Amino acid sequence: MNEALKEVLDLLDLEQIEQDIFRGRSPEERIQRVFGGQVAAQALVAAGRTVQADRTVHSLHAYFIRPGDPAVPIVYNVERVRDGRSFTTRRVVAIQHGKAIFTMSASFHVTEEGIGHQAAVMPQVPDPETLPLFRDRMLDLVGDQEPWRDWLSRPRPVDARYVTPLTWEAYKDPSLRGSETQVWFRYDADLPDDPLLHVVLAAYASDYTLVDTVLLTHGLAWGASNLIGASLDHAMWFHRPLKVDEWVLYAQESPWSGNARGLAQGRMFTASGDLAVSVVQECMIRVANP
User: Fold this and answer.
1) What is the per-residue pLDDT across 40-55, written as a single tens digit (0 to 9) for each?
2) Active-site residue identified among 26, 38, 107, 231
3) Which one from 159, 207, 212, 245 is the annotated catalytic residue?
4) pTM (2 decimals)?
């Protein structure tokens, strides 16, 4: 297990400071704001710790209200909205400097038998092991120069193998623009067999590439275009258990952008083709001097 993944697991081990009140921290890095996937994952951990063990999360709906400050802890207040016979509902508010920076509602459900179907079909894509590492593709683009050298040399918690072009590739070559992103990902370590942990790590990874899917359509890229962007809201539905220490295909598309906002949708498939998670996110994107 590399140090980056150890750091993520440590970030998800929240400190309980009072009943239904938890405290989390951010990595000690020179970043301007807290990564949205981290806040969503920590909030889901806080909610899950107040729910009976026989209930697993089936959906979450979240809003990013203010940028998170990575220099100070985040306090998560959990409200026990309802404990029913089959469903449990929790509301979580993340607070910094006395103000809410993030809110989330999450619903948990006992395992039940019922009707089933899957209309979504996993795209036909190359096996992940045949695809180059993200780091290697970026090095081909930017070379061994600062500030890229330091950024690309850092260990990453998630091994991501892109099927489709990177935003930086489409920035250099307009013919590579498109409205779809397909990426295999996995956490490259044997993780504990804890369903909540795998769901939380899926939530963490879900925020990595959704905004990029909007950028790819327009040939824009962070660091290459004069962009200001942020996640606005985020929704996930967990259809079946998945293991994120095994390969997961994250198929994403952007059906619309306008009014300084963009919409992206994603589906996570197991390697065997089972639809495990659906994701929708709206983001803010402002382009200065395009």
Assistant:
1) 999 999 999 999 999 9
2) 231
3) 207
4) 0.95
